[in-house]
UniProtKB/TrEMBL annotation:
Domain of life: Bacteria
Region entry Disordered, spans: 636-663
Parent sequence residues shown: 151 to 830 of 830
The name this protein goes by in its record: PhoX family phosphatase
Compositional bias per record (Polar residues), positions renumbered to this chain: 644-657
Length: 680
């Protein structure tokens, strides 16, 4: 490990006010440029984006809904990783979802059968981009390199392989891969992970929503001897009687042999083999994974890392890597009352692997064998990592709710295993981030409308009512979310116990300081629904004792007051605050909970950016010198549609009068006008 000189730490900018304007606002002394927008062509042969619904070939354009993102420095030769390069690099980013209407000339064409031409655009607008980006000079402008041989789109149709304990398992046998070793594509990719061996992890979040499952499928599976699949599908939110997002399965392919639309219907087809190889009844088991991509090898098939379990994977960030110690990978499962997980490799870290050229093989080494754990938070501020290991505790064939067959069954059904172990249901675990100076792990708990006064606990202690000023009904539950953090026992990633507290509670600064605005936020830092999160540069680059924590919001509750935002923080350490008794506004004294609260953020948490209308701020990374910060603006104007757009960002960013220009998700670059490190 590097020894660093501890320097005083302070935030070096003036807070940006809350705003409802259709523009990205940053502090005085900073500039924003727009780098990579929905529809921008990545190959040289694809025309510029018309942005009127007529564009095609999204497999060679930027997808929609930019999300998690990593910057990888690129060597002068243009082919290899160079972790010191701040002028040339690759950006890998997720395209989580679409704002469907804006992709078509007059919105979605009505009818029981989707037009194939519309469905293929929508499918290809999902997935991942890898693009080459470059800065003209140390103080110059950034651009992406259209036509770079490293540019790549990964879509829901891209061939992939399975690796780890579930590879080849009966549950992964499909029409496309009868031996259960190959997958097809990735979807609803939310947050990410940046591996020290220069690969990109992309995480499949709300994949379940895309599947159609017709009424009658429960009975059909039971009759076919597949009743366990009904338990599993229900636990992952795929009940019967659903059309699936965007109803892609209704579209008729122009190529009669193609299954790109039919695969989104998971209903058993009578007369087909009963092992998933004739219909698409196993297709849902091929999603819900963490996927590793080598951004430096566009020909390499991405690998679905099954050892990390199957869930609504939000993100997967690695903890500190220390030679001889098994590294940990921290993950949230984003749905109400789901859990926080960590995977500990079976293999201790070897520093030489950071410069190896067989990057996906290094991924095999650290991500295919190890132990998956789920978190239990105790009221006294302690916690346990409970192992998801077949044969231990309730994870056996004798389990009454779901009889587990083997370790692959435990991983495919990680949620059922975590239920059985007694993990703590959380207020929607979103991103994880690890403080490189301390090893402490932070996880955003974005909000939870189903958190009620009767079932608050120390780690999820708030249930309250937040009125609205824009005519909407009041929100209830944990309306504004919080950020929990933990410190592993003895500061080792291999620990099976930890200490925890809550770093900050989201809230409007006008709300009750005793029971809701527990972190005593003020007008410079009040926020709601924390989601994206990333620790900035290590101390030895910034000269600071503590790296900056960047916090981004994805909020519907606070949008009567402000658009979504990004804040910077100097976060302190676990246990730097105290304990408090919280009285829930929904339930009175009987529902009070003692909880552990971090030091009041005060001047160490400050609003740095506010986004345009109806956007989410998500995805963040920087160049290694800290002077260029990349941020994604997701779905501006998502509440509108073709002919009724509710934002014209990014056109509004330059002040141009653009009338009704359709909004576009986009990557922006933030630089400091004096050429310094962003944020300090
Ligand atoms: Fe894609 Fe949980 O946000
Ligand atoms: Ca998110
Ligand atoms: Ca969110
Ligand atoms: Ca979103």
């Amino acid at each position: 490990e590097t020894t660093v000189t501890l320097m005083p730490t302070m935030l070096g900018f003036t807070a940006v006010p809350k705003s409802l304007a259709d523009v990205v606002a940053v502090p005085a002394g900073y500039s924003v440029s727009v780098l990579y927008r929905l529809g921008d062509p990545i190959s040289g042969s694809v025309p510029a984006y018309a942005n009127n619904g007529t564009d095609t070939n999204f497999a060679q354009r930027a997808g929609d809904h930019h999300d998690g993102m990593s910057y990888f420095g690129l060597s002068a030769s243009g082919t290899a990783p160079d972790p010191t390069s701040s002028l040339r690099g690759l950006l890998a980013m997720n395209h989580e979802n679409i704002t469907e209407s804006y992709l078509h000339p007059n919105g979605v064409t009505a009818g029981a059968v989707r037009l194939a031409s519309e469905a293929i655009k929508e499918i290809e607008a999902h997935g991942v981009s890898v693009i080459e980006v470059a800065r003209a000079s140390a103080t110059g402008a950034w651009s992406y390199t259209q036509g770079s041989t490293l540019n790549r789109r990964v879509t829901p149709n891209t061939p992939m392989t399975f690796s780890g304990p579930v590879r080849g398992n009966a549950m992964l046998r499909t029409r496309q891969s009868p031996d259960g070793t190959a997958g097809r594509g990735t979807i609803n990719n939310c947050a990410n992970g940046t591996m020290p061996w220069h690969t990109y992890l992309t995480c499949e979040e709300n994949w379940a929503g895309y599947f159609r499952r017709d009424t009658g499928d429960v009975a059909a599976r039971t009759a076919a001897g597949r009743a366990k699949e009904n338990v599993s599908l229900a636990r992952y939110g795929i009940g019967q009687g659903r059309a699936g997002n965007y109803a892609w399965s209704t579209a008729v392919p122009t190529d009669a042999t193609s299954t790109v639309f039919a695969r989104w219907n998971a209903t058993i087809v009578p007369g087909m083999p009963n092992d998933g190889t004739g219909d698409f009844s196993h297709e849902p088991f091929t999603f819900g994974w963490v996927v590793e991509i080598d951004p430096f090898d566009p020909a390499a098939a991405p690998r679905k890392r099954t050892a990390l379990g199957r869930m609504n994977h939000e993100g997967c960030e690695v903890g500190r890597t220390i030679a001889g110690v098994k590294p940990a990978f921290y993950m949230g499962d984003d749905a109400q009352n789901e859990y926080i997980y960590k995977f500990v490799s079976a293999t201790p870290w070897s520093a030489a692997d950071a410069t190896a050229t067989n990057r996906l093989a290094i991924g095999d080494k650290y991500l295919d064998a190890g132990t998956l754990y789920v978190a239990k938070f105790n009221a006294d501020g302690s916690g346990q990592w409970l192992p998801l290991v077949f044969g231990q505790g309730p994870l056996t064939s004798a389990n009454a709710t779901y009889p587990f067959a083997d370790q692959a069954d435990v991983l495919v059904n990680a949620r059922l295993a975590a239920d059985a172990l007694g993990a703590t249901p959380m207020d929607r675990p979103e991103w994880t981030a690890v403080n490189p100076a301390t090893g402490e792990m932070y996880c955003t708990l974005t909000n939870n409308a189903s958190r009620s006064a009767g079932r608050v606990d120390a780690a999820n202690p708030r249930a309250y009512t937040d009125p609205k000023t824009d005519g909407r009904a009041a929100s209830t539950g944990n309306v504004n979310g919080h950020v929990i953090r933990l410190r592993e026992t003895a500061d080792t990633s291999e620990a099976t116990t930890f200490a925890w507290d809550i770093y900050a509670f989201g809230a409007g600064s006008d709300l009750d300081p005793n029971n809701i605005n527990l972190s005593q936020l003020d007008a410079t830092n009040d926020f709601s629904s924390p989601d994206g999160m990333w620790f900035g540069l290590p101390s030895n680059v910034t000269g600071q004792a503590t790296p900056l924590l960047w916090l981004q919001t994805d909020d519907g509750s606070y949008t009567d007051v402000t658009n979504c935002m990004m804040l910077a923080a100097i976060p302190g350490t676990v246990g730097d605050g105290g304990t408090r008794t919280v009285v829930n506004s929904l339930g009175g004294a009987s529902s009070s909970a003692v909880t552990r609260i971090g030091k009041t953020p005060g001047t160490t948490l400050r609003r740095f950016l506010v986004g345009p209308k109806q956007c989410e701020i998500t995805g963040i990374h920087s160049t290694p010198d800290g002077k260029s910060l990349f941020v994604n603006i997701q779905h501006p104007g998502e509440g509108g549609g073709a002919g009724n757009n509710t934002s014209s960002w990014p056109y509004t960013q330059t002040g141009a009068a653009t009338g009704s220009a359709r909004p576009r998700s986009a990557t922006i670059v933030i630089t400091k006008d004096d050429g310094g490190v962003v944020g300090i």
